[in-house]
Write a structure and sequence with these properties.
12% strand, alpha/beta, Rossmann fold, globular, single chain, 57% helix, 9 helices
Length: 187
């Protein structure tokens, strides 16, 4: 394993994957192990816009959010070198995928839908969890909706240079070590 080359890599490592796949948790861990800074794109957007992602979607709509997300991402790729956890929908077109692959390594954190649904249901702050009346959706409804959304994004996720399979029961440290091993084979 050649961690030296990975530590000297001067691009960023961009973690993508569906919501609740573990991008931020794994990202923080590999950043710590590689002694690199870590940022979460959604946190940058919240701070820059002065409101939650949910509020941005409610008040401005998804097109506005995606445009702002792209602007923050462009700024990150110019000014930041480290580990970046992207939002689950950040790879919404080919331009974003191509841009990230030019500026670093794109990693797909792939988790089973059952694990994703379980994690998403535990976080009622996610807009997708609630129905129009503000009540928590049934597991079956949420599973169907998440699967459809995932299907619309998978073509972009699959273009990542590195894929990490996550089964939902591994410790983040173990997943980080597995990802570092894969990354050392890539760089």
């Amino acid at each position: 394993m050649n961690e030296y080359r990975l530590k000297k890599f001067d691009g960023s490592i961009y973690l993508t994957g569906f919501m609740a796949s573990g991008k931020s948790a794994i990202g923080r861990e590999i950043a710590k192990k590689l002694e690199r800074p870590f940022v979460d794109l959604d946190a940058i957007i919240k701070r820059g816009e002065g409101k939650s992602i949910k509020r941005i979607f409610e008040e401005e709509g998804e097109p506005y959010f995606r445009d702002r997300e792209w602007q923050y991402l462009l700024e990150l790729t110019r000014e930041f070198k480290g580990v970046v956890a992207l939002g689950g929908g950040a790879l919404h077109n080919q331009r974003v995928v191509d841009h990230l692959k030019v500026h670093g390594i794109l990693v797909f954190i792939k988790a089973p839908m059952e694990v994703i649904v379980e994690r998403v249901m535990r976080n009622t702050k996610r807009p997708i969890v609630l129905n129009a009346e503000g009540k928590i959706k049934s597991r079956e409804t949420l599973f169907t909706e998440l699967k459809a959304l995932y299907s619309s994004r998978i073509e972009y996720y699959k273009q990542a240079q590195v894929t990490l399979e996550s089964h939902g029961n591994e410790l983040k440290e173990g997943q980080a070590l597995k990802l570092i091993e894969k990354l050392t084979r890539y760089v």
